[in-house]
Amino acid sequence: MTDVVEIPIQAAAADLVPGYAHPGDAGADLRSTETVELAPGERALVGTGIAIALPEGYAAFVVPRSGLAAKHGITVVNAPGTVDAGYRGEIKVTLLNTDRERSFRVEPGDRIAQVIVMPVSRAEFVPVAELPESARGTGGFGSTGVSD
Ligand SMILES: O=c1ccn([C@H]2C[C@H](O)[C@@H](COP(=O)(O)OP(=O)(O)OP(=O)(O)O)O2)c(=O)[nH]1
Ligand SMILES: [Mg+2]
Predict the structure, then answer these.
(1) Class assignment of domain 9-19+27-119?
(2) Which UniProt keywords apply (predicted)?
């Protein structure tokens, strides 16, 4: 059993409290409080009816559900959406329908995305004249090859 982080939550209804489907799951599902019809290519900011108080040193990340993505082309525009520890507002999900032909309808109570709680470091960015060398150096964006 890994550490469990206790997170105070205010939920508009008890069934909106995010739940893990299985022991060991990283993502807890977020539910919609709204009815939304997403036309092909359309996006919407969808309420989840919850607000949380993350401990300092943690963040929560709003990410898509793979089933909605694979079957319906539903994703989260800004994935991973970042919920800061100090944020006390309602967590919202920027849902996007990437399907070119089919609309997607969200009903209240539907599981629209998931949230992952993680410890995060706070950085101090220190300007320097030279960065330390590394094996990768400045190579990126496909420098090791793209297709194989
Ligand atoms: O998917 C998301 C992403 C963010 N937020 C909330 C929590 C987060 O702490 C706040 C601000 O997010 P972010 O910093 O990504 O947005 P911004 O456009 O930079 O807004 P701000 O100027 O308020 O920081 O919005 C959500 O509810 N859902
Ligand atoms: Mg910001």
Answers:
(1) mainly beta
(2) Hydrolase, Magnesium, Metal-binding, Nucleotide metabolism
